[in-house]
Every structure is written in structure tokens, then in C-alpha cells.
Amino acid sequence: MQESDILFEPINIGPLKIPNRLVFPATGTHFCAQDGTVSDRLINFLVRRAQGGVGLIVTEYTEIDPEQLASSRALQIHHDRFIPGLSRLARAVKAAGAAVAVQLHHPGRYSDHRISGRQAVAPSAVKSRILRETPRELTEEEIQDLIAKFGEGARRAREAGFDAVELHGASGYLLNQFFSPVTNLRTDAWGGDTARRCRFAQEIVTRCKEQAGRDFPVILRLAVKDYIPGGLEVAESKEIVRIMEAAGVDAVSVTAGGHDSVPHSSGQIVPGMFFPPGAYAGLAKEIKQAAQRPVMVAGRINSPRLAADILAGKKADMICLCRALICDPDLPQKARQGRAKEIRRCLYDNTCTDTIIRGVPGAALVCLLNPEVGREYAPERAADPAKRVLVLGGSPAGLEAARVARQRGHTVALFEENAALGGRWSWMIDPYVQNRRRMLAALGVEIRLGIASLPKSVRAWAPEVVIVTRGLKEPAFFIPGIEEINRADADEVLAGKARPQGRVVVLGGGNIGLETAELLAKAGCQVTIVEESWPGKGVAFIMRGHYFARLAARGVKLLAKAKITKIAKGAVMLRQEDGSEQAAVADWLVAALFKDIDPEPLGWLEELPAAVFYLNPTQSPREWTAAMQEGTELARRI
Question: How far apart are CA 400 and CA 440, in angstroms?
């Protein structure tokens, strides 16, 4: 018997039998069509997770109201015309072995007027800290209309062949707004005490059961703690669960946080690498004490062993694995077969959703370690003719170009002058580089590191195509008196070649500067970061709050909108945005600026009988998505 066997025990949600305890929960992908209909890309993404052995899949949030939208590309279920596409998705996922549910969603005050063209609506006119907009309070007639729309959504889900629906009562969205005393200030029948704040969700459950059938399971996704002063706490959420189960909810999916959480905002919803594994298992355990129906839990559950421990400890009945299954859809099968060591482990860096959350046009879900995401069952087009392709430089763009070129059938080698792959970017470089190095080795790509004479080696390999990652050069900057202070470059500090001591000013608050500052603070230095604009450049948006909090806990001072004007008598003189000046006493100055891209071509390459292409280097995790796209697109053209 394996410790993971408990993960594969069947369980019922109402009359629905789930083959195991593992759930792929709702997550935004932007894989649907622009009009909100189901696409082949979305189906393939979900089917791949089903084939990996997960028991239940919940779609990304699916809108019940076309006039209130939080995303420019989201699934829709507000009209019968969406049923055929949804039916195609449901059939495909079920045929692959998993049960499937639709998550019904309304954003409430997080509806974006830039997308919907309308003012957001909510239980009360409480301004969003993130969107900085105030919604309009819903009228009685509008509340009844929304209840009907949720019910119609459930009917369409059943007609499309889904096994259940999930009501999105988390992340600060509409149902969560009704539950929370911070966002529901109503004094009528829809607000006040806990019972009245549950009424909206209760009536939605009743309407879903009326429209889709009493035997049709309804799951409630619930943020059991808001992390907002005066907001929902676990004690009240336990009462909410009792009320909602009495209304007919068949299971509760526990999560926490919302977009307005303090201090981490959206980062509280998707706990990243700075959170402990199983971040919300303790909250789920408390909810389970009040619940009579199955309890699911999400929140950085990063291994089959941890998942099994949560179940064995009676903290939850089912385990939601979102980013873990994005990274490795075969995690369930590997766990079941005793192959846990082969699982590709998520970094929880939250690069996957960063561009979506920031609203980058055309953005979609990606994974730092799984390049298949969004391209499931889409093999690369075979090259005709196959060529000898040489990649110079082991930065992310070069690594992706090498991978795709080899997958297309080219003979590929990768040469790097340095002793290691990766280039210059961040703390996530090692796992990513090791991941890609294993991929390239499995594909048969020749890798040579520490090449002493690059021109000689390139000529000897005789490439037909050369792909070069451009170099970086130090940015030009001058500070009067800089010769009066000990100086080092951040790269030297991170590599252990320079060891500043005492009071250190780090110039630059991007990802390299933050990482350098944390390293120095751990070594006992008193650190001040000076950033001319806003700090955090290069760090995923939803990770910044966590990073700043970690630095503050170590005593690191962060000065934004400040510029070093001169250095004199062991002090760094600063000018703030408002023109005021101050001095930071310092023994060392460490430059952690983003470097400039060297645009000059390599002259000796032009002498070769080969086509030469250039890629830009990567200096931060946030640039990785663009680098990956640039490298893969080039490799598909050659």
C-alpha cells in the first residue's frame, strides 16, 4: 500500500460519483474564443488534464451576465447559443475519464467598465481598492434578475452535459461581496446579519436546483477569510457553510483572499512561493468541522504526499491542484504508479497568470516549466528541409529556440561561452534551466558550455543557421563622488564574488535589486534600495506585495521615486520626487540596474555561409513570456 492510495478513493458529491479525490479547479486561461464560446484550444487543455488522471475538472469562470465582465476573454453561458460548444467540451472531458463542472460567475464590483462599457454593480456602493472605482448598488429587481440568470446558467450546464455547477463565491466576486460585511452594507433583506447576507446565494442555489434538477450537484467555492480588516473570518464562514448546506449546496471548495486583500491583493488568492505549502489546509480543517458535505481545499498543495497528509489528517475530503496540474498534468498518474520523483514540480512563481492579471493584450496562460500549455496535441510542423541550426547563448529565448527547432527535426546545437546556461534574470533561473536542459538532452540537442574560442568552435560545427542571443552591456550612469565609496555590481554580489558589509545602498529596485537586497540583508547588512521609478519591475504583479513584505521584515528600506544626486563623506545624497533631499549613510553602493542590450552584430558571423538571426536577452521572469514567444516563433520560421 502506498501513502498516496488515499488520493484515489472515490467520493460522491450529491449523487455524482468522482473516481478520486483530486480536482483541477477553475483557473483563467484566455483559451476560449474572443466571443466567449468554447475553442479547441480550451478543450485540449482540459482534456489533457483529464487524461492525466484527475477526478474532477471545473471550468474557468463562466459569465452569466454579458453586461458585467471582469475579463476581455471569458467563457459565457448567458444564452442558449453557448450550449453546443459547452456540450462539446463536456463530452470530451468526460470521455477522457474525469467528471466536469461549470463555474458560474458574476464579478460584481470587479466588472471592468473598459470591457463591459457599463458601471459595475454590487450589493453596496463600496469602492474597490484595486480598480479604484465605486460600483452602483443593485436594486431589488436587479437582484431577482441575477438569481434567475444563475438558475438559467445551471440549466444550460445540465443541458450541455455537465455533471455539476460551481458557484464562484471567492476572490472578492459578487457572491463573496454579498457574504462579506465589508462589501455588503445593506439594511434590507439582502444584508445585515450573516443569515441575510447569505440570502442571495441561498436563492441562487434554490433556483439552480429548480432549473437543473434537485439531483444536479451545486458546489460552492468560498473564500473563508477575506484578509480585509473587518471582513469575513473563519468563524463566520463556518456559519455560512451551515446555512448554504441547508439551502442545498452539495460540496464546499475552500480558498481565501480576494483582489482587495491586505497587503497582498490578488496574491492572496493564488499563494505563491513565499507562502507555506498547503497554505489554506488549516482553514479547510476548521470549515470541515462545521460541514456535513465534502470539503475541497486549494492553496499551494505541491506534492502527492502533502495532499495525502491533508486527507489523512481529516482537514479536507478533496484536493484542488491548479498550478501543480498546469505544470504536470500527469501528476495523478505518476503518484498512482509510484513515480512521484518524476513529477515536474511547480515553482509557484505565478508567472503563469501574470500577463492575464495585468491585462496584456492577447495574453494567455503559460507555464515556466511546461511549454505544452496551450499547445496540447499540437506538434510542431516538420522542417523541410531540415538544417544544421546553431544557437549561441543559453538565455530563455535561446533555449526555447533550440527546443522548438529540434522538435521540428533540425539538427541543433547550443553553445554558451559561460560555464552555465540561463543568462541574467532571477532566483527562478536554476529550476527553469535544469528543466530545459533535461528537455534538450532528451531531444538530442548538443550543449557545449564554457567555450574558450567561440568563432573557432562555430566554424568547426558548420551551421546553416545561427541564432544569437544578443549580449548585455553596463548602462551608462555617473554619480558625482562615486569614487569615494566601495562599489560592486549586483551580479558580482549574487555570484559571491563581492561581499559588501555594513550599510549598503542598492541602486535599482527591479527583480535583481530586490534579490540582491534580500541576500545582503540575510548576511547582516543594513540595506536601503533606491529606485527612480516604482520598485518591483520584472517581478510578477501578484508577487510584489509578498516580496516587499519579506524585505520589510528583514529591515530593508525601500525608497521609490528617488534619485542619487551625489556621494560625499560616506553618505549617499538623494532627491525625492517632491524635490526634498535626504542622506543615506552608506559604506557600499551596489548597482542593480537593468542592463542595456548590445545591438551590435557579431562581425565574424557575417563571414559564415549561414543565415544569422538575433534574439533579445532576458533580465527578469516577467520578460520570460515574451522571450519564449520570440524564440519559438523564430524557430518556427527557419
Answer: 9
